[in-house]
Amino acid sequence: MVRARGAAAAPANVGESMAIWHDPEGAETRVVHALVDFRGQDVLEVGCGDGRLTWRYCAGARSVLALDPKADEIATARREAARLGHHHVVFEAADITTWAPPAAGFDVAVLSWSI
């Protein structure tokens, strides 16, 4: 479930690192922020890969748990999160079909390449 709460401006630093290569004009970033206000939200991202989409919204989120079954992609994302200082973003190698979610739940779910 994704709850749209109105448009929000994309953070100025979203073009960092690998993310800019996939969205040099910022179109995807603008659309994501037009659909969901991530500020102060606990976010679950399914199919995060190397964090391609994560970097576009995570700065304003309270917390992010990003899942992907590919351990090598998760390793890349973890290194990038550490480099960028995004300590509120946790990357976990997991298959969503067998993963047990925490009882607390999430405010927003993002399905990147998972659909």
Structure description:
With 115 residues, this protein is α/β, with parallel strands linked by helices. The protein has a single domain (19-111), classed as Rossmann fold (3-Layer(aba) Sandwich), CATH 3.40.50. The chain has helices at 19-22, 27-35, 54-57, 71-84; strands spanning 42-46, 63-68, 89-93, 108-111. A four-stranded parallel beta sheet has the order 3-2-1-4, covered by helices on one side. The longest helix has 14 residues, at 71-84.
Quick overview:
It is built from 4 helices and 4 strands. By secondary structure, the protein is an alpha/beta fold.
Keywords:
115 residues, alpha/beta, Rossmann fold, 4 strands, globular
The share of residues in helices is 25-40%
CATH class assignment: Alpha Beta
Order of helices and strands: HHEHEHEE
The first-to-last residue Cα distance is: 13 Å
CATH homologous superfamily name?
Answer: Vaccinia Virus protein VP39
Largest sheet: 4 strands, parallel
Low-confidence stretches: 1-20
The shape, in one word, is: globular
- Strand content bin: 15-25%
Give the helices and strands, then pairings.
Elements: H1 19-22, H2 27-35, E1 42-46, H3 54-57, E2 63-68, H4 71-84, E3 89-93, E4 108-111
Parallel strand pairs: 1-2, 1-4, 2-3
